[in-house]
Amino acid sequence: MMELSDYLESRTGEAIKTLDELVRIPTQVPPGENYGKIMDFVAGKLRDLDFEVEIIHMPRDLFEKKNPRLSHLQGERVNLSAKKNLQAEKTLLINTHLDVVPASGNWSVQPFEVTRKDGHIFGRGVADSKGGVAALLTVLSAMRELNIKPKYNLNIALTTDEEMGPYSGLCYLADLGKLKADYFLSMDGDSDDITIASNGNVDWQVDVSGKSYHSGSSFLGVNAIEKSVPVMSELLELKAKIEKRRSKVPASVAISKKTGIKTLMPVLNITVINAGVKQNIVPDRCTMKGDRRYIPEEKFEDVCREMNDAVARVKEKHDINLKMSCDDIYAPMLTDMNHPWILEVKRVAEEVAGREVRFAGAQGSLDVAYAVRVTGLPACCFGLGRRTESNAHAEDENIWIEDLVMYTKFLARLMGG
Ligand SMILES: [Zn+2]
Questions:
Q1: How far is the CA of 152 from the centre of ligand 1 (A)?
Q2: Are the CB atoms for 78 and 35 separated by under 8 Å?
Q3: 150 vs 42, 54, 143, 153, 412, CA distance in Å?
Q4: Residue 2 has what pLDDT?
Q5: How close is the Cα of 98 to the center of ligand 1, in Å?
Q6: What is the C-alpha separation between 210 and 223, in angstroms, rounded?
Q7: Residue 310, Ramachandran bin (φ over 0: left; ψ between -120 and 50: alpha; else beta)
Q8: Ligand 1: distance of its center to the CA of 191 in Å?
Q9: Could you tell me where in the chain the CATH 3.30.70.360 domains are found?
Q10: Is the pLDDT confidence value at 198 over 90?
Q11: How remote is the CA of residue 189 from the centroid of ligand 1, in Å?
């Protein structure tokens, strides 16, 4: 019998063809297009491989309730859950998302079809994260042809709205109880390192109220913009304090190389300011918004208390009329680096990549963290793009063809081929 690894080399063309078919269904979000079409396409492939497939729509009212700022987005929010019971002892959950960010900017190739060039494949979503799905479908069909049975029961969750959040299809499947398994592999990541942790995310907002007046007699009004300045200074002082903290979790290789920062760190950002109508009107309202990314060692309650305390101090001192709110967007994730499943993923990744692949934390926040909070599963993310080369979320997104082959071998070995 031919070895699966060699066989997968001979199936590279098929993997690229499947990837092309996925890329040609443009699933950009916002607004979230063609979700039903891409899920039908993948469902057909998985049914041919004897999976029990369920297409799951997130109800419109739930989508709007959980994503209040996105309720203007039309289109069905469609997800897929596919299961195959192989009478194995343990079940492996494999997940990634099939939505992509829009393809604006100056692409040198057509974004919504695959172009092969110089050992690369170009197209929107090839790295983030349709490439993983193409690899998975190729491996499953190759294993069946060679009559190799995966050593786990398989639970495949392919979801949407990851690129937008906060409440993505994966969060919904977690709440529905569709993610039952023993181990969890997310293909949504890159191949630079294995992501075992991520920062949590709090969105904050401060509304400063004043009193509008004719600017010629501005001393009779209360200028909400001017009142916001000390609030911002206080937040910047807090930022300096917070950003000295460090997690125990190693930072990604890319970040360490670029900045010398060795571990995950928290950040506080002011990212939006809205105020003012016209030069000659004293503004009666100033809204500031931002986010606070917190490390796994920090707690949501403490993060909010710290922000509230800072704002309360400045409110008192400068007699400012303001309101502050903190929204829990994503929890942090932290998987035990010594868990046997995580060590197994690392061993297999290093074997196929032929180099050391370290554990690392993500500065950003993941919908995987939500699923982990609900299921308690040991989880990690390993994908096939390269962080500094693949241009995920930018123009000319690409992967190496050799990485696509590497990734099919990774999945095959992990599943026991
Ligand atoms: Zn992604």
A1: 25
A2: yes
A3: 20, 21, 8, 7, 8
A4: 58
A5: 8
A6: 6
A7: alpha
A8: 13
A9: 200-330
A10: yes
A11: 6
Q: Which two tokens mark 26?
A: 């443009």
Q: What is the structure's pLDDT at 417?
A: 67
CATH class of the domain comprising 4-198+332-414: alpha beta
Q: Are strands 91-97 and 183-186 parallel, antiparallel or unpaired?
A: parallel
pTM of the entire predicted model = 0.90
The full length of the chain comes to: 417
Q: CATH 3.40.630.10: which residues of the chain?
A: 4-198+332-414
**What b/e sequence results for 309-346 when a residue is b if at least 16 CB atoms lie within 10 Å of its CB, and e otherwise?**
ebbeebbeeeebebebebeebbbbbbbebeeebbeebb
Helix, strand or coil, per DSSP, at residue 361 = strand
How far, in Å, is the centroid of ligand 1 from the Cα of 129?
A: 5
Architecture of domain 200-330: 2-Layer Sandwich (3.30)
Q: What is the C-alpha separation between 225 and 237, in angstroms, rounded? A: 19
CA of 174 to the centre of ligand 1 (A): 18
pLDDT of residue 255 exceeding 50: yes
Place of tokens 């500065």: 363
Express each pLDDT in 315-326 by its tens digit: 999 999 999 999
Distance CA 153, CA 88 (A): 6
End-to-end Cα, the chain, rounded Å: 12
Q: How far is the CA of 102 from the centre of ligand 1 (A)?
A: 13
Which residues neighbour 100 within 8 Å (Cβ) at sequence distance 6 or greater?
26, 27, 28, 29, 124, 125, 128, 130, 163
User: Which conformational region is residue 32 in: left (phi greater than 0), alpha (psi within -120 to 50 degrees), or beta?
Assistant: left
Angle of CA points 173, 169, 417, to nearest 5°: 70
Tokens 């600017």 correspond to: 215
